[in-house]
Amino acid sequence: MSARPVLEQLLFARWVDLGTRAGLAFLVAAFLAYATGLLEPLVPFARLPELWSRPAAGGGWGWLAQLGHGEPLCLAAIALLALVPLAAMLRIAIEWWRGGARLHAALALAQVAVLLFAASGLVAGGHG
Q1: Rounded to whole angstroms, how far apart are CA atoms 45 and 70?
Q2: Can you tell me the distance from the alpha carbon of 88 to that of 18, in angstroms, rounded to the nearest whole number?
Q3: CA quadruple 48, 51, 55, 57: dihedral sign
Q4: d(CA 29, CA 2)
Q5: What letter would DSSP give residue 5?
Q6: Integer Cα distance of 59 and 120 in angstroms
Q7: Which of 19, 55, 100, 106 is the most buried (most CB within 10 A)?
Q8: What integer pLDDT is reported at residue 128 of this predicted model?
Q9: CA-CA distance, 108 to 87, in Å (whole number)?
């Protein structure tokens, strides 16, 4: 006996599939723009080998202000790929809400809210 997928599973899978395909296309386009020099890099390619052994500086959301450069645009594409499952969960929450499964919808929204809060950088644990 094989179990048939339920509507929520099919909906989630469709959103993850489409989001992943779009995100991957954006990532490839951003990388090509960076690698071909269409977008000016923040760090010249010739300096990369000397910087690879150094620790990464900073963090946070400051890179958003530099999206006109190749490296931050590639980082944005990766961030968008990471958001695909959250978008799919939001879509399912809407479906559950419309179908009257308000508790399921509320739990899905709470899960999305917690993940977004964690990603926001407003809280940090274990960083000396």
Answers
A1: 11
A2: 10
A3: negative
A4: 40
A5: P
A6: 11
A7: 19
A8: 47
A9: 11
Helix (H, G, I), strand (E, B) or coil at 122: coil
pTM reported for the whole predicted model: 0.77
Distance, CA of 91 to CA of 110 (rounded, Å) = 14
Q: How far apart are CA 82 and CA 87, in angstroms?
A: 10
Length of the chain, in residues: 128
Q: What is the pLDDT of residues 64-75, one digit of tens each?
A: 888 888 888 999
Give the amino acid at 100: G
Q: What is the CA radius of gyration of the chain?
A: 19
2-34: per-residue pLDDT in tens? Answer: 577 788 899 999 999 999 999 999 999 999 999
Q: Which amino acid is at 68?
A: G
Residue keyed to tokens 């809060």? 117
26 is written with which tokens? Answer: 């954006």
Say if residues 115 and 96 touch (Cβ distance below 8 Å): no
Q: Which two tokens stand for residue 104?
A: 């399921």
Q: What is the mean predicted confidence (pLDDT) over 57-86?
A: 87
